[in-house]
Amino acid sequence: MGMRVGNRRGTVVYTTGILRKNPRTRFVLVDAVNLGQASRNITVQVIDWSNGSPVPLKVVPCNTRRCTQVVGPNKSVFLYADVSKVQFKYEVRIIQPANRRFVTNVFGVTKTPFKPLEGGTVLQHDLVKIGR
Quick check: 31 and 104 in contact, CB under 8 A? Predict the structure, then answer.
């Protein structure tokens, strides 16, 4: 179910840890920016932990339970999951380059226009490294 740790050279696996869902949160949005000179991959997984067991949610734009996107040099992308049916808590896991020029932030947001909500924001420096 989970992301294998140590499966890709030059990458690191991060987690938000389990976050309590704000009742107004509709989506979890992952913003990534590549400030480097080469294209890099990011893989995102969003997990509903409300019943105590992991339930992976579909991540857009892939519409799969684990989504990988290429981020070009000096470009940004966002990936998101609908968490409107999550009752209590969720987690976001990210595999990204082990490179200081690749930065990822996670936001719990409302329905359009994706306004960030208090308690659902985890910035790059707050993500917890769980593997390489």
Answer: yes
- 86/83 Cα distance (integer angstroms): 5
Question: How many Å apart are CA 57 and CA 65, to the nearest integer?
Answer: 5
Separation between Cα atoms, residue 118 and residue 52, nearest integer Å: 23
The position carrying tokens 């990988």 is: 68
CA-CA-CA-CA dihedral for 21, 32, 46, 20, to nearest 10: -20
pTM of the model as a whole: 0.89
β-pair type (67-71, 102-109): unpaired
pLDDT of residue 44: 98
CB atoms within 10 A of CB 113: 6
